[in-house]
Amino acid sequence: MIEDIETIDEFLARRTSDVEEAIRQAAAAEIMPRFRQLTADEIDEKSGPHDLVTDADRKAEEYLTEALAKLLPGSVVVGEEAVHANPATYEAIQGQAPVWIIDPVDGTRQFVHGDTGFCTLVALAVGGVVHASWTFAPARDQLAVAVRGRGARLDGELLRPGAPTPGRDLEIATSHPDYTTDEQKRALLGLRTEGVRTRPCGSAGLEYLAVARGELDGTAFSWEAAWDHAAGLLLVEEAGGAHLTLTGEPFRITGGNTLPFTAARDETTARRVRGLLTAGL
Known about the structure:
The chain has eight helices and 14 strands. It is an alpha+beta fold. Helix 5 crosses helix 8 (267-279). It starts with a helix and ends with a helix.
């Protein structure tokens, strides 16, 4: 078992490329052969019509679970589909063992509809702190990697989104209304103001990548599932952005956050969005 951050750093220095290769292989073996080839019996609903799962989700998670656990002995895996089958699995995020947090197909609805806006998300965390993340959009052949303290890169190029252009409306991607409580809806209404344009979010992982690239100014999300956020939050953070909950604290993957929360391309924008969300309450 890895016990300290130096050992995690050593692992990442030696094996980051092996993690990348495992993610690419999982996509090549289990996701892309099913892209635009799904049959009805390969698609199921979980909590409702907007919450889909496919054979690609299940098989890719199984592939990654085996491959990543082998790369890092003593690590555990928290995958979206495994947690759906056994919610107690999620508790590993609270522990001290290194944990791989996996969303095999983030944006399953887009995947089912034949849209390229989906990705595979992998994060490596210890004690609730994310040390590295991988965001792979296989249909677009894009791979973003972030390592704590070492920056964020897309296909090897350093990501630096900078601040929004002065005088331009902020563009913010927000949670789908189906996934918000009445109080959260009121908070999100605070974004309906002059100088802000909102739109529904797609794949959370790709929205975080858009923030890290400076193509999107921020997000406002109302759910906590670590597999949707862990990879992207580190990506935004290492690119120079910031994330804040309604209490003004950074989002915690271990839970207990006051929602909705925002991730933005710089701290000033994050504080502005948080202020608008709290004003809506």
